[in-house]
Amino acid sequence: MDKSPTNYRHGHRARLREKFLSDKLAEYELLELLLSYAIPRKDVKPIAHGLLRVFGNIHDLLCAPVERLESVPGVGASAAVLIKVAREIILIDYENTMKNTPIFVDYKAFENYCRMKLSGKLTEEFHVLYLDKHRQLIKAEIHSKGAADYAEVYPIEIAKRAVALNAKCVALIHNHPSRLTSFSDSDKKATEVVIQKLDALGIEFFDHFVVSGGIVHSIKNTYAC
User: Fold this and answer.
1) Minimal CA–CA distance to 129: which of 156, 102, 93?
2) Nearest 10 degrees: CA dihedral of 77, 26, 20, 80?
3) Residue 25 — left, alpha, or beta (φ > 0 → left; ψ -120 to 50 → alpha)?
4) pTM, full prediction
5) What's 169-217 look like in SS3?
6) What is the pLDDT of residues 16-44, one digit of tens each?
7) 125 three-state secondary structure
8) CA-based nearest residue to 126, from 105, 149, 103, 102
């Protein structure tokens, strides 16, 4: 029996695929299988364990910037990109679900979407969800990118875009990379102006969410908006 490293890897990866099809893989083995498609000629088990040691869990790993992924020994550009592709596929699935189901029906799934969308970002990003009368997603768009502690908000542009998309409801999402766990005064003021602009057009304001430290905060639960 040939026990060369190459044949061993091929046999091990075949076993991983079989276990995956039987729904028997542990978390690190799922990551190991994923990495095997980006790193074809190397034992990726130590790399999978290394990634989980650094990031703690699959969610934080998927949300990590490419630069941080590549800083883990053994993780090159191809593996980092593949991990980010997996994240994008998950986000597409969430958004497709929200196009067919009102976003408040499964609030936990919506929170997971917010975390997946914005956790791990090194700068603030402001996103807008444009919803129909049933609060189902028409389109999710990035509104602006900023610095580590600030992203511009343009209420008139949000209102104009809502009209262009025939949206009947709008939800706002942004992040705090600095792990600030509450809305800032500028967040509150910007939200109030957005509400005013939308209200003048008869468009409902759903809520404004901030993702900070892995937690999703609602401005309606923080202030009386």
Assistant:
1) 102
2) -10
3) beta
4) 0.83
5) EEEEEEECCCCCCCCCHHHHHHHHHHHHHHHHCCCEEEEEEEEECCEEE
6) 788 777 777 888 889 999 999 998 878 89
7) strand
8) 149
